[in-house]
Hints:
This protein is mostly helical. The chain is built from 14 helices and no strands. The N and C termini lie far apart (45 Å). The relative contact order is 0.07.
Amino acid sequence: MAPGHVAYGLQAQYGLPVTADTVVAWERGLLAPDSRELAALAGVLWCSPGELLGTPQSLREHRLARALGAEDVARRVGMDPASYRRMEDGNRWRGNERQTAALAEALSLTPRELLTATGRDGELAELLRSAATTRWQAYVRPVAKMLPLPRQRLEAALQRLHTDYHARMAATSSWGASAGSGESGRDFLDRIADHFWALASG
């Protein structure tokens, strides 16, 4: 469908004053439609908002892909709509453990999708590095607050990260270890999130 036809459909069917130039800008990624425009655009093109978004990454994109309003999600997670909107706009989630689990359920997110959508990948990696190098038990609660995982699975994953890291480091301190054998421990910490997801998903 030509941009002029799309703009006409948005105006005629939904009363949105969108020009063909705006439609072209959306297609090229120069502009992004707001929630109302995206829902209307999906209606004009006979598809779902999710199909227009591709693979959602942010909280807003996941919400729009599921055709939910911000107020609906805020209600489901037990949060003031204005607070939820601020977190969504900043792509920075600050909900508690219960709200995080409710958010994952409301948006049908896997734990890994939830972490990416809430902008906390780096924060998790830092917690995992600390759990591997120090006392893993101290990091169960902070990680649980970020991710709705069964507690036993989370504890087992953190304990295994700790054990695997220290096994690598013990090998570097043995009498026959080569000078470069500390690389194994550093490489493990650099890829700690991948190790964690492999353990936590099973």
